[in-house]
């Protein structure tokens, strides 16, 4: 046992050997006195050293440097606003032409530059503000039980007030206003982008109420466009279907996004058909819109044993036996059914267009 008077620490180190346990002084120790192979250390504790002395920043010592830092921060926020405006202008000035790959590159480059400038301006400005101008005194927060007493709520108000004072957001009006402007302007490019994806000057519900399907249109395989006979659809099989002539349509991608269909065959006795839909299937062959009624993802997974259709995006599940009613997930309505039959040559054809709008159910409908 060695005792160090200067440190206030008693240290006993033990090592195990073949015949038992010995300590570093060479005296024998009974095996039961210590655990073999372990060092036993005890301490009387030591004083809390506290936090190191606070070092003031250059902006704390020199008001001129503080003003320079302030100008840098609000300039970055104004650059962020300029980046957001530039992104919107670039989106309009360089429209995408699907027949011109160069237009895609120009749109992507300039749009990306604008959004990058908008993000970097806010990010770098906020970091520089925190590092150079906000309150820089170290503090110790003693943990205590969380309570909802009047004193706690009053202290919370004080903390918000202190945060306002320490950050300077209340008195540094240029920084505050430029940050607010940057945060308001930053989402605008996203609004413009998403709005550009939707129909222009038209009501979405009207567009989704009509597709390329019509009476007598043959069901064809996607993507080949070859017609399919009822005899080719066996029980348990599923096919991705598009309307006849879709591949030759000038706006085929837009039309396919509405008209894509899943074709399946189950035992006719498994189908629970509601009144008015008795002739919408042909000998157990049913066709349903492939566009999920949640947010429009492609419903592409058919479970042969359960007769369920699964949307891979958010796991909405539809029951084919019960007219594709929703049995799980966020979708709120069944997949629209395409009425089908066969023509004189045995090919599957549509009886009409869908009788309800296809796609996400959040669209307004009359």
UniProtKB/TrEMBL annotation:
Q: Where is this region: Disordered?
A: 1-30, 44-63
Q: Which residues form the signal peptide?
A: none
Q: Which GO terms describe its molecular function?
A: 2 iron, 2 sulfur cluster binding; metal ion binding; monooxygenase activity; oxidoreductase activity, acting on paired donors, with incorporation or reduction of molecular oxygen
The membrane-topology field of this record reads: Multi-pass membrane protein
Residues in domain Rieske? 280-349
Under PROSITE patterns, the record lists: RIESKE
Q: Where in the cell is it found?
A: Cell membrane
Q: Which Pfam families match?
A: QcrA_N, Rieske
Which InterPro entries does this chain map to? Answer: QcrA_N, Rieske_2Fe-2S, Rieske_2Fe-2S_sf, Rieske_Fe-S_prot
Main location as per UniProt = membrane
Q: Does the keyword Cell membrane apply?
A: yes
Give the matching CDD domains.
Answer: Rieske (cd03467)
Q: Could you list the residue ranges that cross the membrane?
A: 73-94, 106-127, 179-198
Query: What is one cellular component GO term in this UniProt entry?
Result: plasma membrane
Q: Name the UniProt key words of this record, in alphabetical order.
A: 2Fe-2S, Cell membrane, Disulfide bond, Electron transport, Iron, Iron-sulfur, Membrane, Metal-binding, Oxidoreductase, Respiratory chain, Transmembrane, Transmembrane helix, Transport
Family membership noted in the UniProt record: Belongs to the Rieske iron-sulfur protein family.
The task this protein performs is described as:
Iron-sulfur subunit of the cytochrome bc1 complex, an essential component of the respiratory electron transport chain required for ATP synthesis. The bc1 complex catalyzes the oxidation of menaquinol and the reduction of cytochrome c in the respiratory chain. The bc1 complex operates through a Q-cycle mechanism that couples electron transfer to generation of the proton gradient that drives ATP synthesis.
Q: What is this protein called?
A: Cytochrome bc1 complex Rieske iron-sulfur subunit
